[in-house]
Design brief:
Elements: E1 2-8, E2 12-16, E3 19-23, E4 28-29, E5 34-36, E6 59-63, H1 64-74, E7 88-91, E8 103-106, E9 109-116, H2 121-127, H3 132-139, E10 144-150, E11 152-154, E12 160-164, H4 172-181, H5 186-193, H6 200-212, E13 215-218, E14 221-224
Amino acid sequence: MKLLSVNVSLPREVLHERETVSTGIFKRPVAGRVMLRTSNLDGDGQADLENHGGIHRAAYAYSIENYYHWRREIGRTDFAFGQFGENFTVEGMVEDDIHIGDVFRVGDALVEVTQPRPPCFKLGIKMGMARFPKLFLASGRVGFYLRVLEEGEVGAGDVFELIESGPERMTVREMSRLLFFEPENLEGAKRALRVRALSPGWRDSFEERLTKAGVTEEQGETVEKESPG
């Protein structure tokens, strides 16, 4: 498991459907080592702070193996590091092998996997394909966000050393599919909520799912509510 490229950008304005949109998705590789801080990488920024960035989404990782898939799938060869808006282009860290809650040492930093990436229309802008976010989500090749447990410098060539594996062993692909394609899977939602590292937004979504189904969490155990009357 290896870091191939560190990619950053500050927000910029682009024209989209006759409107101006601010986005930080146009990441470009940087030379040398970069400081990874609790909120983001030095030199990086997000335009939509509600859905990007913050301590549970300090950096976004995407694997080179997925690059190969999309080159075949959509017949393009013009990809460069940062193509999918990722901060870290990585190798050997595909969604079926990485778990929510996995902790890695990379360079001088310590990071924890917190959630899959839910794509938005800005990925379609970056790819020049309005339908691409739907293809991206359906593929399960969504990459993952990282929380910074210890700040430190990182750079291309650094190795990701697994320090601790996520306790529920829920892969990035499983978690993404559970939220977006398995709305009736209550057992999966209960399992997801046992993952301490799961980001607050995703946790809220699963809690809401259980609440709507008449299920609540009490004292760390899941119990069904009694029917009224």
